[in-house]
Design goal:
92 residues, mainly alpha, rod-shaped
Length: 92
Amino acid sequence: MTRIRVAGIAGGVALLALAVWGGEYGTADWITIRRQLAEERTRVAALRIELDSLAKLAHDLETNPAVQERVAREQFGMIRDGEVLYRVVPKE
């Protein structure tokens, strides 16, 4: 091989390495950013689903008497006239 050919191959390898790893946003950084973007989009989608379910729950708590009664019974121990409330307390 001639020196020119070796220099050309070395230059090509150097340019390829620069394209992959060089600079602030090389190909390796681009791949990492794309992966992070996909993960963040997945998280945003999960948060949107959670937000929708919380909005539905808030609406039901404001407008649905059955849901209001269930929450009052579960969280506050409220009972109707004639009912007996039993609380199970675990041993420590």
